[in-house]
């Protein structure tokens, strides 16, 4: 029971042994996002037509700031894992695939950081 | 060796998607991925909303104006439906992960249920928003 020749491993072929972690993190974030996404949708709905002061007051409350940060973080982690699968399925050239996989991580971090920064600016 | 490389290049490929009939389970799977990708773009809207709220009245008003425009409403409807579908179908996936609902007739039934519910939720959200919140185009 080997995972292919040493040469194949050097070439990046065969299992990287990280599939279980990917699968599990995808499910953990999915479970977390069920209540968080529903909370986000209800909150966003209640803020329809609200002026900025009402939105600021909502996001200033610690419980809302914390839940919104958790929602954003769980969402971008779930997004990065999902988009990674899409890239791995459809990007065929190794070079282009690597570039897309790195850009995918950058995108998730950028969106997550921007949202958390905005929340800190409002809540602190 | 060269012969091996050649045969590797000429491996038979499975027929492309268009060849197959579209069973419900296949359609729901593809829509799950498509809505996931749409929601990834949707995170930019969430980020825009939060940043605009943090930055100032002018930025917040710009976001509100765009969100209320016909194009904004269309995009938001797509966002709401994608979220509803991905959430409901995600629960279906999680049920499969713990071993429930795998039988083909069951999977087909839950697939139709999830798709119908997602459309219903999206329309209900907008009807309620327009009626109760006085939001209009």
CATH topology category name of chain A: 3 helical TM bundles of succinate and fumarate reductases
CATH fold assignment of chain B:
3 helical TM bundles of succinate and fumarate reductases
Rg of chain B, Å, rounded: 21 Å
Low-confidence stretches of chain B: none
Distance between termini of chain A?
55 Å
Number of helices of chain B: 5
Largest sheet of chain A: none
Reported CATH architecture of chain B: Up-down Bundle
Mean pLDDT over all positions of chain B? 90
Domain count of chain B, please report it.
1
CATH superfamily of chain A, by name, is Fumarate reductase/succinate dehydrogenase, transmembrane subunit
Q: What fraction, in percent, of the residue positions of chain B are helical?
A: over 70%
Number of strands of chain A: 0
CATH class of chain B: Mainly Alpha
Which ranges of chain A are low-confidence, i.e. pLDDT below 50, for 5 or more consecutive residues?
Answer: none
Give the tally of β-strands of chain B.
Answer: 0
The quaternary structure here is heterodimer
